Amino acid sequence: MPNSLDIQLQNQSTSSEIYAYVTGLSLQQNAGSRVLIKSDGRSLYFPANPPKILQPLAEDCAIRLGPPGSPPVTVHCPQMAGGRICVLNPTDANAGVDFTFAEFTLNGHQLFANISYVDFVSRLPVALSLRDGAGVQHVSGMASDGLARLCDGLRDQAGRDGKPWDKLIVPDKKGGGPTTPLRVLSPTHGNAAGASFAGYYEPLVEEVWQKYHESTGTKLQINTQAAAGVVEGAVNQGGQLVLGGEAFGKPNTADILGCNSGPFVTGPSPTRNAIIPRLAAGFLRSSLADCPDHPSPPETHYRREPTNHYARLLHEVNLDGKGYAFAYDDVQPDGGADRSGKVNSGDPRVFVVTVGGGNAYVGDTMPL
């Protein structure tokens, strides 16, 4: 595994004003510190703790990609751990900035990168390509009209079920006016846009609790895909779902959308920690009520109400159907096709990140 990697960045949008910022936690020099790569695509900048919020960087870290059709810009990246950035507060000074991101971690074992919609969807699509000694991995992302198609689907769904899917659409108040979308928030953050989904999943939870109650004789099976193997269980007389000796209370809508609260909080038990992603994914995809064996295949996802139509539509508008629509969207049956939009390798040779969706495609080839 190399100590560093050259990342190629390419503008496939219609704008000549595209800048990249590469940031993460350094794993080598000043290990554990926040680091950015300067505008030259090579030098490192370790920012000091600012005296207050919204302070400008002391160094120029805006890497210009050049106009559409320009050769890719190469950024020399040391080992670092990544993380996502999002702006949810509509009064924040940066709320109107048109931005997108891809996550990656480069460490001593591998490069792992993905496109993520866990928090929001930008109107700037991102695609990833990775070549290693075994071949090419490619995540297509959305075409340039992907956000518009997603918004159309959300508006249509809101008209069908009366839920605030359309309120997840954040308008571009600066450049395009109130009817032009800037981004779409995940329903996990719906309250930031006045879109409350309180109580939405509770009917499904009740149905699941009734189906797998021990009095019915129907068992729920979870393949932990870990040391615990396949665990099964049912809802006991105390109202808890017991799987592999681990007891789970009823989740509410916020627990299901966020996947990290209520019964989905991880802890010291490896068995519980392996059950949680698969159980949470089954609820969010609304497949628990129909399928007793999990993880269930994609054809069982989002087929009944209530379900996460944000996630359903995202997979539909991504050209290859891939992308993290929620935190555990990498859950899949053994041998199943990846749905999460990730690329990874312990032997990365060429890593390309393209933005804009202008030449988005499906297939295992490199864009350069």
Looking at this protein, list some descriptive labels.
368 residues, 22 strands, alpha+beta, 5-stranded mixed beta sheet, 15% helix
Fraction of residues in β-strands: 25-35%
Low-confidence stretches: none
Q: Per the principal axes of the C-alpha atoms, what is the gross shape?
A: globular
Oligomeric assembly: single chain
End-to-end distance, in Å? 23 Å
The number of helical runs is 5
Structural class: alpha+beta
Largest sheet descriptor: 5 strands, mixed
How does this model look, in words?
InterPro entries: Glyco_hydro_64, Glyco_hydro_64_fam, Glyco_hydro_64_N_2, Osmotin/thaumatin-like_sf. Residues 1-357 form the GH64 domain. This is GH64 domain-containing protein. It holds the Pfam family Glyco_hydro_64. It comes from Apiospora marii. With 368 residues, this protein is of the alpha+beta class. The chain contains five helices and 22 strands. Strands 7-1-22-12-13 form a five-stranded mixed β-sheet, with no helix packed on it. Strand 9 and strand 10 (111-114) form a beta hairpin. Helix 1 runs antiparallel to helix 5. The longest helix is centred in the middle third of the chain and has 16 residues, at 146-161. It is globular. It starts with a strand and ends in a 13-residue tail after the last strand.
SSE order and pairing:
Blueprint: E1 4-11, E2 19-20, E3 23-26, E4 34-37, E5 44-45, E6 63-64, E7 73-78, E8 80-81, E9 103-106, E10 111-114, E11 120-122, E12 126-132, E13 135-139, H1 146-161, E14 169-172, E15 177-185, H2 202-211, E16 220-223, E17 230-235, E18 241-243, E19 246-248, H3 253-258, H4 270-284, E20 293-294, H5 309-317, E21 342-345, E22 348-355
Domain GH64: 1-357
Protein name: GH64 domain-containing protein
InterPro entries: Glyco_hydro_64 (IPR032477), Glyco_hydro_64_fam (IPR037398), Glyco_hydro_64_N_2 (IPR042517), Osmotin/thaumatin-like_sf (IPR037176)
